[in-house]
Amino acid sequence: MSEKNNGDEPADKDRRNFFKFLGVAAIAAGGIGALRGVLENVSPPITAAFSAFPTLLLYSQSGKPISTNDLIVNNSTIVLFDYPLQNEPNFLLRLGDSNNNDVAIEPTTVTIPATGKTFQSPGGVGPHNSVVASSAICQHLGCIPPIIHFYPPSSSSYPGKVHCNCHGSTYDPYKGFAVVTGPTTHPLPNTVLTYDSAKDQYSVSSLVGPTIYGHSSDLSGGNPLASSSYTEISTLTPTS
Ligand code: FES
Fold first, then answer.
1. What is the pLDDT of residues 178-193, one digit of tens each?
2. 119: closest CA among 207, 50, 204?
3. What does the alpha-carbon distance between residue 128 and residue 112 come to, in Å, rounded to a whole number?
4. Is 179 in the pocket of ligand 1 (CB under 6 A)?
5. What is the pLDDT of residues 199-212, one digit of tens each?
6. What CATH fold (topology level) applies to the domain 56-236?
7. CB under 8 Å to 65, separation ≥6 — which residues?
8. How would you class 119 by CB atoms within 10 Å of its CB: exposed for 0-12, middle for 13-18, buried for 19 or more?
9. Is the CB of 168 under 6 A from ligand 1?
10. Measured between alpha carbons, how far is 180 from 234 in angstroms, rounded to an integer?
11. Ligand 1 mean position to 94 CA, how many Å?
């Protein structure tokens, strides 16, 4: 004799049986804490996207490696690239003085106010050692461009600084993206660039300093970039 059909769809029946299984497992293992463990075990694990930082060539949107002439000194347009994961924007800046002449950015020791620890900022690369990069995710609460961006030295507000209009944090890109004003207590993570002078091409190879905001590790908690050999430049207009 066939079992009475009570109207459940097969998927509902399967789901009910699944939760019955979880309930039995939880009781057997000792209660709610164990149930949490069971649920964690049936969730897809968040895996590391990379086991090490990839080295990626910086590409223009026209599909060519960028060269020094593609980078404008003190550009008021925001120039970004994702690294080391998708949707992890980084600033790409060619820094200059108030006359828009390249300024060589020296390697420097940067303090992390939150911990008192320091790290070595790599300094600039390129023919004038003026090209630098950093995470573009504010270290206070994670605001992203265009609300956080570089203000050229000629700006009337925040000249020569990266400023976040969410709550007012300011960073100094000429000094390893160190904290100038809070509320942030962490500098922007410095993105390490290399320059091939023979080809006039730029690559990104790692990050130094604090971990990218919102991550326990720079290499996990997101998806790998589409290509394992390059990352593409994008641009945004500042909000103010
Ligand atoms: S998120 Fe940038 S200052 Fe708060």
1. 999 999 999 999 999 9
2. 207
3. 28
4. no
5. 999 999 999 999 99
6. Rieske Iron-sulfur Protein (2.102.10)
7. 57, 58, 59, 199, 201, 202, 230
8. middle
9. yes
10. 27
11. 24
